[in-house]
Amino acid sequence: MSLFLASLGFGLVTAAVLAIAAVGFTMQFAVTDVLNLAYGAVMIASAFVAYALNQAGVNVWLALLAAAAAGSVGSVLLNQGIYTPFQRRAGNSARAPITMVIVSLGMTLIIEFGLQAIVGGTSVSYTMSQGPTVKAGGLVLTAVQFAIIGLAIVVMAAVHVLLRYSKLGKAMRATSANRSLARNCGIRTDRIVTLTWAITGALCGIAGTVFAINNGSFGATSADLFLVVILAAVFLGGPGQAYGAMLGAVIIGLATEISAAYITPSYKDVIAFLVLLIMMVVRPGGLLGAAVS
């Protein structure tokens, strides 16, 4: 029982990190129509911004704000400088989606290995204390792990308020549903797309920093495998569904960490895809996506 509770605690932390990343990824995809596979690279680049400040004596939680800003600015520049020109050239051709996937994969390599050329190939760690160990209902976690869970809850609540109660959120949902119709209704869709990249980029920066904190150490290519887990959570919940990404993150986070307690931990990412494959057989559109007949 103690082993199960310990793995449950780790699963909640993993789910918290994954939720922040997956929600940003799926909102980005829903509004901009870009499957941004460079998302993990931007995460790690943002984490290194926080690391640089942390090494200069800044508390890592304050440095997280700088990482969010870096992720936001980097994502907007990535869209305006790379993705938008390629989208315009591809137009409505049948090859447009695969073109953007190839472009985003190329940007992943450019960002990661460009970063590696700057910071080196060794792993680094933040200078920070894990705080006291806290026991809650049988769960045993550090204060930092509880802080990550709390941060994820705050971020998810903020996303909920944004999407449900703000004019920007309603415009984002309208643009996601039908960009042409939204434009005809007076919504400045280009501006909404740019703001979406900024917001989701901030989530990407936050996710990169808490991912690095939770991992303990990280390098320029550390998020490559984690991007696969993000995709599993996104498609499990339903592509383009923010609430689906939250639910998918919880399921994948718990499934991978609990299974790691009873089987070889190196197989836990395989578990994420087994859960996804089972769901795709039962409900191909994802948990909260449209049912496929």
Topology:
Layout: H1 2-32, H2 39-55, H3 60-90, H4 96-119, E1 133-136, E2 139-142, H5 143-165, H6 167-177, H7 179-184, H8 189-215, H9 224-237, H10 242-260, H11 268-282
Antiparallel strand pairs: 1-2
How would you concisely characterize the structure shown here?
The chain is 74% helix and 3% strand.
Architecture overview:
This protein has 293 residues and is an all-alpha fold. Strands 1-2 form a two-stranded antiparallel ribbon. Strand 1 and strand 2 form a beta hairpin. Helix 3 packs antiparallel against helix 4, helix 6 packs across helix 8 and helix 9 packs across helix 10. The longest helix has 31 residues. The protein is globular and about 55 Å long. It starts with a helix and ends in an 11-residue tail after the last helix. The model has no long low-confidence stretch (mean pLDDT 89).
SSE topology string: HHHHEEHHHHHHH
Tell me the strand percentage band. Answer: under 5%
Coarse shape: globular
Q: Separation of termini?
A: 41 Å
* Physical arrangement of strands within the biggest beta sheet: 1-2
Helical element count? 11
- Strand tally, please? 2
Q: What multimeric state do the chains show?
A: single chain
What Rg do the Cα atoms give? Answer: 19 Å
Class inferred from helices and paired strands? mainly alpha
**Major sheet details:** 2 strands, antiparallel
Mean pLDDT, to the nearest integer, reads 89
